[in-house]
Amino acid sequence: MRLNPFDTSKIDVGSAGGGVGKAGGLGCGTIIIAALGYFVFGLDPMQTAATVESVQQSQASQEPGTQDEQALCTSNQYATETCNALLSLNETWARTFQEQGFGERFQEPGLRFASGRFQTECGPASSGMGPFYCPADQRIYIDTSFYDQLAQMAGNEGDFARLYVVAHEYGHHIQTITGISGQIRSAQQQNPRRANQLSVLMELQADCYAGVWAGKNRNLIEPGDIEEGMQAAAAIGDDRLTGGRVSSDNFTHGTSRQRSEALRLGLQGDDRACDNITNVG
């Protein structure tokens, strides 16, 4: 995907933990560990929750790193791609909010390149959790070394698979600033038996929002990009990641087919279609 170079004056970029990794409708948001964290690293949701609780009890807070934004964004190919994607996402969603008459509601998220263990407003975290979005501080956290693992899982090393990850986490930011995230959390508390089902819908909508961004920038898409995105979405479906070890009743992100279809729905370029995400799969 042919993205314009980032401008650090237009994006909020920083580091957390040990620094940068080695390769470093709107009228209508969640699970702190979003798109890819639960099963990619051999952790199920309950194990992850226990790990976070243990860290909360034993680890002192760490202040985010203060490295220069330009240095962070140029530290490696993956970091540069991520910063380019953040700028494009900011511009695309700001324009979308404006066009629909909600321009004053739009807020840009921050981006933090993370490694090791670090502190967020959502609590202690680690790069082993995978990329995630924290609604409390409205920041996307990514250890870019994860992209190498994603390439192995998806069976390709295309850049669009990596951009899809950033766009998905950005989708959770859209859910937060539009109020969807709060509504879902409230519904989960009121009906705990539906908590996983609601989580799946949240993740599928974030996939759909990722597709919306790409769909609104079709002039920048290159041959093979869509296929790369579909392969990545399928590779991180709950059914494929768990290999049958986890019941579908306990899925938290959606099946490979559901995730691929949600991304495909968003590629039509209309974010309002993502409001109908419950009709996917």
Please characterize this protein's 3D structure:
- It is found in: Membrane.
- Its main location: membrane.
- It comes from Qipengyuania profundimaris.
- The chain crosses the membrane at residues 20-41.
- Keywords: Membrane, Transmembrane, Transmembrane helix.
- With 281 residues, this protein is an alpha/beta fold.
- It has one domain.
- It is 48% helix and 10% strand.
- It contains 11 helices and 6 strands.
- It has helices at 37-40, 45-58, 69-73, 77-99, 146-154, 159-178, 180-190, 195-215, 225-235, 238-242, 256-266, and strands at 12-17, 110-115, 117-120, 123-126, 132-134, 139-142.
- It has a 4-stranded mixed beta sheet with strand order 1-2-6-5. A two-stranded antiparallel sheet has the order 3-4.
- Strand 3 and strand 4 form a beta hairpin.
- Helix 6 packs across helix 9 (225-235) and helix 7 packs antiparallel against helix 8.
- The chain is globular and about 45 Å long.
- The two termini are 28 Å apart.
- The relative contact order is 0.17.
- Mean pLDDT is 75; it is low at 18-24 and 27-66.
SSE layout:
Layout: E1 12-17, H1 37-40, H2 45-58, H3 69-73, H4 77-99, E2 110-115, E3 117-120, E4 123-126, E5 132-134, E6 139-142, H5 146-154, H6 159-178, H7 180-190, H8 195-215, H9 225-235, H10 238-242, H11 256-266
Helix pairs in contact: 4-6, 5-9, 6-8, 6-9, 7-8, 8-11, 9-11
